[in-house]
Amino acid sequence: MHTVLVSCAGRNRKPNIITLAWAMPTSINPPLVAISVAPRRHSYSIIEKTKQFVINIPTMNILDETLFCGRTSGKNHDKFRETGLTKSRSRKVKPPIIKECVAHLECKLHSQFTTGDHIIFVGKIVEAYADKEVFTDKYDLKKAKMIFHLGANDFATLNSKVFTPKLNLLNNNAVSVNKNRRGTDEPLR
Fold this sequence. Notes:
Distance between the termini: 25 Å
CATH superfamily: Electron Transport, Fmn-binding Protein, Chain A
Number of helices: 4
CATH architecture: Roll
Largest sheet: 7 strands, antiparallel
CATH class: Mainly Beta
Number of domains: 1
Structural class: alpha+beta
């Protein structure tokens, strides 16, 4: 699972970081993203109260710090100080961004719901930006070695070789299997 660092800040302004592997975009219009947090986590109560958070995209350069933030509670630890990660002012929300991360999604809480033993926080992205060296219209995998959680304390990154499927095969099959409500063929988008 793709690993992110979510920063949040309580009303006392003390920032916290939680490492999550359960994060995903859910809508383009409006721009929404979801994160899954267990209610027993310190960041859960901060996000629920302040209704803001930032999704920061870490790379393999800060793998040790990423693991520390996932294994240590911010209730009794200052994760920024103890990891040496740099908090920087965000553009539109109160929680800070993590300077060492390559991209940032500033979010205001759109909705939340319970899914078993976790809460899904859906954030409306109010500002999104990335380091120009690693992202233009897509990530440069040679420069942005993003972190993927394999389980336990094991992580991996993507191979920098990019594969693009043959679109002619996709387009030929899409028309034959996708019917719209009027019963006519409609290509996938």
